[in-house]
Write the structure tokens for this entry.
Amino acid sequence: MSLTENTASCPYDKNNPYVARMTERMRLSKPGGQKETFHFAIDLGDSGITYESGDSLGVYPRNAPQDVADILRAIGAAGDEFVRLPKVEDDVYLVDALATQLSLAGPTRKFLEFIAERATNPVEKDKAAALLAPEQTEACSDFLFQREYIDLLQEFPSAKPTPQELVGFLRKLMPRLYSIASSPVKYPKEVQLCVAVVRYETNGRKRNGVCSSFLAERVEVGHSEIPIFVTSSHFKLPADPKSDVIMVGPGTGIAPFRAFLQERAMTKAPGRNWVFFGDQRRSCDFLYCDEWEHYLHDGTLTRLDLAFSRDQEFKIYVQDRLRENAAELWSWLKSGAYFYVCGDAKRMAKDVDAALQHIAVEQGGLTPEAAVEFFKDMKKQKRYQRDVY
């Protein structure tokens, strides 16, 4: 997703976000699954903010209060100390800086060097120094990757930084970008999101994604302030509504395609629509299932192919469904269909691309080299678009 700001004549952007409020929070995933996926609706009010299907919403989160409290306790601060931040005109309270301005994750080698120099406990000083040894570069990187700042503050308590020293090491808390899951044709005054709550464990500690847990757990519907802005995207529906559209969006990658289908239905676009959706279990993770069934019934959605990886002995993914439907898929592509994919860049998007190359060779009789060129041409024509992250 791009961080390019919306170019519409609107006063709100990344540097001047609009303070919005959430009007709806609904859990999409069912109990019994491994994922927690939510639908959020955020009111645009009288902001004048406009967006297009395929755009993204930037959200500035707040750090969890417990994480802030742990930091304050570790450095022996009350929170009402004033600190100075880069590019901020006035001093701010430490507690506010930690809550809304600074990232508490990603400790740096420089901070470990500070610890090695400042620690008064010999054991702590030796441990930090050993990690910083030239031959331990990889081990040091692994050590830091598994930790957040609170871990180092608690593991090396004798190297107690002052509030100003600590904030000098912390990076700026950046906005998170989410593909918008609604069409402005249907919802001109609000944006809707489809977000999975990020949960993981490092260094024996349970962690939560800062923004996903903020939206799911800490925002009070109708009351809490959420700084937001819209970012324009290259990810757009075809200009010609008669064009056919193939959409591949496993998990929350389905978000922009929900927007696309809403728009195609509202504008009565005559082109065919084919969606490939996948997740872990149909009983728990079939996001927006009622809406897809509705679009199938009214003819907006021509085909819906599903891949639930954990519902059978062997895992099935969206790229497998592409291969299973190779002949028809190739027919659509050769007839001028647009192909879209949204979601994980590291594995899924690469596997989808590999499946397309295979289909072009198998069904189109192309050489592997010619298949590569075929999809390069599609990208140049903006018929093959990816929103991956």
Summary: The first strand starts at residue 18 and ends at 27. Residues 1-8 have pLDDT under 50 and may be disordered. Residues 18-60+176-231 form a domain with the Elongation Factor Tu (Ef-tu); domain 3 fold (CATH 2.40.30.10).
